[in-house]
Amino acid sequence: MHFPGVALITGAASGIGMATAKLFAKEGCRRLVLADIQTTSLNKTREEIQAEHKDVEVTAIPTDVTSESSVNSLVQSAVSTFGRIDYACNVAGTLIPGISTEYSLGQWDKQFSVNTRGMWLCQRAELTQMLKQEPIQSSDGRYPARGAIANVASMAGLRVYDNLPAYCASKYAIIGFTKSDGLHYAKHGIRVNAICPGVIKTPMLGDVPEEDDTNLDEMVSEMALKRPGQPEEVAECLVWITSGRASFVTATTLAPNGGKVTFFVVSHV
Ligand SMILES: NC(=O)c1ccc[n+]([C@@H]2O[C@H](COP(=O)([O-])OP(=O)(O)OC[C@H]3O[C@@H](n4cnc5c(N)ncnc54)[C@H](O)[C@@H]3O)[C@@H](O)[C@H]2O)c1
Q1: Residue 167 a catalytic site member
Q2: 206 pLDDT band (50/70/90 cuts)?
Q3: Of residues 87, 167, 172, 185, which has the active-site annotation?
Q4: CB of 136 within 8 A of CB of 5?
Q5: Which of 39, 63, 181, 265 has the most CB atoms less than 10 A away?
Q6: Which residues, at least 6 apart from 239, have a Cβ–Cβ distance to it below 8 Å?
Q7: CATH code that applies to domain 6-254
């Protein structure tokens, strides 16, 4: 793929975000901005990319996506380093499982603070920057693009799991603002989409305690491919959907979920 612009990836210290950052470099993006709250692991991702791709400029910016000032300063730093942001992948998120009657308000607030508020703060700051910049030529001579954003929601934003009310609600909300802003900013040449992965083998799954009744095996058994996905397989979707190759794709969801055998919610169009 052809990536003439600048990619920004949150959650780049681990899992899907790290895989996405590495794939952008492998696919020829030469200017990367990586963000995460885990500074040591974030720097490790940067070093690994630089070791493998000598011609790629990578900046790693410790960021707490729940903080407005931290997110705004991430975008400002990205722009002062590279001048613009073209492919923004908002991946940072957390999973706090639990049924409502055993869930504290603090857990609910944390779940929403990272997943929903954090992703919206990133999207808002990225849109604000993208509106200021001139479009660049898209890959393969297609339509010029002012910018593209991909938010990582989840299958839990398209259907419910009976033991993840807060996580599901936080991911449904992401799809709401993704589609709304996707429609609104299309006229400005900015695309906004959501990626909705199924069960993916990342450290996040380690956050689900055995006794939690989340039943990952059952979730995987509902997937037609009968295996969890790899973070690299989700990264492919993020890289494609923000690239010029997806120039006619906006305000929608893409679900790398191994094929759902059962799908309870059918009204998301
Ligand atoms: N793994 C799955 O099965 C799965 C399925 C569907 C959706 N998702 C979503 O994919 C995204 C990435 O998750 P993952 O599976 O790669 O998990 P992960 O735990 O490997 O990565 C999540 C990253 O987000 C970062 N992060 C958390 N809070 C942050 C904050 N306040 N500020 C900045 N960074 C923060 C973490 O430090 C971590 O590096 C999440 O949004 C998650 O909800 C994951």
Answers
A1: yes
A2: confident
A3: 167
A4: yes
A5: 63
A6: 1, 20, 23, 24, 27, 87
A7: 3.40.50.720
Residue type, 40: T
Classified as helix, coil or strand, 12 is coil
Name the β-bridge partners of 229. 200
134 C-alpha vs ligand 1 centroid, how far in Å?
31
How far away, in angstroms, is 67 Cα from ligand 1 center? Answer: 16
Residue 69: band (very low, low, confident or very high) from pLDDT cuts 50, 70, 90: very high
Distance CA 110, CA 37 (A): 14
Cβ count within 10 A of residue 218: 10
Tokens at 208, concatenated: 């689900």
**Radius of gyration for the alpha carbons in the chain, expressed in angstroms and rounded:** 18
Question: Look-up: residue for tokens 């990619």?
Answer: 7
Pocket of ligand 1 from Cβ distances under 6 Å: 10-11, 13-17, 36-38, 63-66, 91-95, 114, 118, 152, 154, 197, 199-200, 202-205, 231
pLDDT band at 269, cuts 50/70/90? very low
**Can 171 be counted among the known catalytic residues?**
yes
Ligand 1: residue of 170, 178, 202 to mutate (most ligand atoms within 8 A of CB) is 202
Using an 8 Å Cβ cutoff, are 15 and 95 in contact? no
Task: Please say whether the beta carbons of 13 and 71 come within 8 A.
Answer: no
Question: Would you state the structure tokens that stand for residue 119, as one six-digit string?
Answer: 């992703």
Q: 77 C-alpha vs ligand 1 centroid, how far in Å? A: 22
The two three-digit tokens of residue 170, written as one number? 């936080």
